[in-house]
Design a protein that fits this description.
By secondary structure, the chain is mostly helical. It has helices at 2-22, 30-35, 42-53, 56-69, 75-97, 103-110, 113-146, 157-213, 220-229, 254-264, 267-274, 279-293, 296-300, 302-310, 321-329, 333-371, 377-398, 409-433, 439-458, 477-498, 521-539; strands at 467-470, 473-476. It has a two-stranded antiparallel sheet.
Length: 543
């Protein structure tokens, strides 16, 4: 009961503060509702970026990967910082210069309205199949176990999971649909403070518990020493075996591409930066997020490794590792209730961010452009809210089906993402760097890319591995994604040279945002890259 009361108190406080901060905001205009009136400061941009990204699909999925595969899975976090630096220095200036509200609007301006519509549909499908169901499924899994919801259903875990998923979906919908981007961003920042405290406590208390149980009772340092002396190769992020979960070679192929898509062209993420007060504020927030991502391995992978040692590798599923460790280290109902509340906030953050992006995509790119070109901004917001409710219902319906899929949660999510991500990334890069590629090339490239990965990514899987059959060779699925990217680019550039756009495209500055860059952006970006290299160099010595 104490755990539940603390949970409700913290959650209620965040909700009240968010309401107070946004109750007088403009929720009727498209810019006010979808982009927070372009008023976000760097700290809110950074907090919202990190919390949108960090949710239970990360906490549960990545720690499950750490439990099963060790520190090599930290690439999902650390390699993301490279992509975030690219966002700050390459992508964000172009987005803000055009004053766009969606990635598809940026592409519509560059290529054609038809391309914008196509990309909107692809982004919506990605949100519905890849992001939203995974967020509330993993969240439901965690919250069910923490509050032992199955007791209310006579021990029926499946029924308890479904009810928890429905409750999370409804709660997330309230923030996103009725509060707009500003409410999402403010609640993200508040929950981020709690998650930073709680998230960092899990590995610290986990090391202490490991030291007490297996390390001779010496506390945190004894726990860390135990990790370095017992199967230390689990701490090594460099896997040279091509059959490993994330071979080192994939960091320079599919890993770099999929993280660049996520942080530079994924509407659910980049929409936070579109609401920046200025380019300088946006760059500060984005680069701060890049720096904070370097802490990811400590609270997103290390707990899974600690759990492997504590439970002797005997858990039924690696995705259960994080919840099991949390229950072990937070024996106090007060601490458990607080941590459950901030995890709840992280779940809502990712879910409501995805919903807010879906409503933006539909209202701006589909409803306004295809259905009702004379729609007022108030009408666009209203239609967006209705569409958001439909998307939420769809995500809630799909989420329970994930439990029937084989393999780790995080790997399944990223494999599904690759289907859409690679073609979309190729389009955005061409839009930025090629001024004469025609819209026709986009349609051909997207069709080829989706067909290619559907066949080689899903129908050529080697059972119980991350490998795919590719003309007699067995390659990691991340390499397959990189081959797909190269194929798409070759096709689109070939068409560009055979049938180029008559006049080169020149992007105009709309004047919606001050695009004066932050003077320290490039030095900070270089500093982040140096830190990444140092982390891999130092940690590769383990084992």
């Amino acid at each position: 009961m104490t755990t539940l009361l603390i949970f409700l108190l913290f959650t209620g406080t965040v909700g009240f503060v968010t309401w107070r901060a946004t109750r007088k905001d403009d929720h009727d205009s498209a810019t006010g509702y979808f982009l927070a009136g372009r008023s976000l400061t760097w700290i809110v941009v950074a907090g919202s970026l990190l919390l949108t990204n960090l949710s239970t699909e990360q906490l549960v999925g990545l720690n499950g990967g750490g439990y099963s595969n060790g520190m090599q899975v930290m690439a999902w976090e650390v390699w993301s910082s490279i992509a975030i630096v690219l966002m700050a220095l390459v992508f964000l200036p172009r987005y803000l210069r055009g004053g766009v509200r969606t990635v598809s609007e940026f592409l519509a301006n560059r290529f054609s309205r038809g391309v914008g519509t196509l990309v909107s549909i692809m982004l919506l499908l990605s949100l519905l199949t890849n992001l939203l169901p995974f967020v509330i499924y993993s969240g439901g899994l965690f919250m069910r176990d923490v509050f032992e919801v199955e007791r209310l259903f006579g021990g029926n875990e499946n029924a308890a999971l479904v009810v928890t998923i429905i409750a999370l979906g409804i709660a997330g919908s309230i923030y996103a649909i009725f509060g707009g981007l500003k409410a999402v961003a403010v609640s993200d920042t508040l929950n981020g403070i709690g998650l930073l405290i709680g998230g960092l406590l899990v590995p610290i208390l986990g090391l202490q518990l490991l030291g007490e149980r297996l390390g001779g009772g010496g506390g945190i340092m004894a726990g860390f020493r135990y990790l370095t002396e017992n199967k230390p190769e689990m701490l090594n992020p460099v896997a040279m075996d091509e059959k490993a979960n994330i071979p080192f070679s994939t960091l320079f192929t599919g890993m770099l591409l999929i993280t660049t898509y996520y942080w530079c062209t994924n509407q659910a993420i980049v929409q936070r930066t579109f609401g920046s007060r200025s380019l300088a504020e946006g760059q500060k927030g984005v680069l701060f997020a890049a720096l904070m991502k370097l802490l990811g391995p400590f609270y997103l992978v290390l707990p899974g490794i600690i759990a492997w040692h504590l439970f002797s590798g005997n858990l039924e599923n690696g995705d259960l590792a994080y919840g099991a460790l949390v229950l072990e280290v937070f024996q106090s109902p007060l601490m458990l209730g607080f941590f459950a509340a901030v995890i709840f906030g992280a779940i809502l953050s990712s879910f409501n961010s995805g919903l807010n992006s879906a409503t933006t995509l539909f209202s701006v790119d589909i409803y306004k452009n295809l259905i009702n070109r004379d729609a007022s901004e108030e009408r666009m917001v209203k239609v967006g809210k209705i569409f958001g409710i439909c998307v939420a219902i769809g995500a809630i319906a799909v989420a329970p089906l994930i439990s029937k899929a084989s393999g780790g949660l995080f790997d399944l999510m990223k494999n599904l993402a690759m289907l859409y991500n690679i073609p979309l990334l190729a389009l955005v890069l061409l839009a930025i760097f090629s001024k004469r590629t025609p819209a026709f090339a986009v349609y051909v490239g997207v069709i080829v890319g989706i067909v290619f990965y559907t066949w080689f990514g899903f129908f050529q899987q080697v059972p119980d591995t991350g490998l795919r059959k590719f003309f007699g060779y067995e390659l990691n699925w991340l390499h397959i994604g990189a081959i797909n990217f190269a194929l798409i680019m070759v096709i689109m550039l070939t068409i560009r040279y055979i049938r180029p756009r008559p006049e080169p495209y020149e992007q105009s500055h709309t004047g919606d945002v001050d695009i004066t860059p932050w003077k320290w952006a490039k030095p900070c970006g270089i500093g982040v890259l140096v830190l990444i290299a140092a982390m891999y160099l130092l940690m590769s010595r383990f084992g």
